[in-house]
Design goal:
- There is one protein chain.
- A hairpin with a 2-residue loop joins strand 2 and strand 3.
- The chain is of the alpha+beta class and 168 residues long.
- The protein has five helices and six strands.
- It is globular, with a radius of gyration of 25 Å.
- It has one domain.
């Protein structure tokens, strides 16, 4: 009887140890690493240029954009894995998403108070070499604008609104 009890205790101990190891391993969740990238803005006098339209994005399997992406007075490049490419190409090749760029901006400016506008939630992120504007402008007679703009340093939402008709 004592031998059976000892075997039972040893067996239960082994089961507990294995269960503990399995629990510890299964509860460990590796977070995906944040994608390393850098946005570069090359200023010029080109006005508004389309980087990627929501209609064009919808033609792809990943057509996830419900907004247009523009640059104003500049070209937008992105550096990923030490390779500089046009933002348009990076988006089309699915090397980066606008969601990842906007999430990074939200993280970079999480302690800033003057980022959001009272027009429905548009957000402006002022980086050292460009300004990123994510519109969420509620239209009174027109649709809500949710486009994204990359603009030169020093330019803001109000400047863009004066320079172009945002609804065109």
């Amino acid at each position: 009887m004592i031998i059976i009890a000892v075997v039972l205790v040893v067996a239960l101990g082994a089961i507990f140890a294995v269960t503990s190891i399995v629990k510890n391993n299964s509860s460990k969740v590796d977070k995906p690493e944040e994608k390393a990238f850098e946005i570069k803005f090359y200023e010029d006098e080109s006005g508004r240029k389309s980087i990627l339209s929501k209609d064009e994005a919808g033609k792809h399997d990943w057509g996830i954009y419900s907004y247009n992406i523009y640059s104003y007075n500049g070209d937008v490049k992105i550096v990923i894995n030490n390779q500089e490419i046009a933002l348009r190409d990076a988006l089309l090749d699915n090397k980066i998403t606008m969601q990842e760029i906007i999430e990074r901006a939200n993280k970079d400016f999480e302690n800033e108070k003057d980022v959001e506008y009272l027009d429905g939630g548009s957000k402006e992120y002022k980086y050292p070499n460009y300004t990123l504007l994510k519109l969420n402008k509620i239209g009174y007679e027109k649709e809500t604008l949710q486009d994204v703009y990359f603009m030169p340093v020093g330019m803001n939402y109000s400047d863009l609104d004066k320079a172009i008709d945002l609804y065109k």
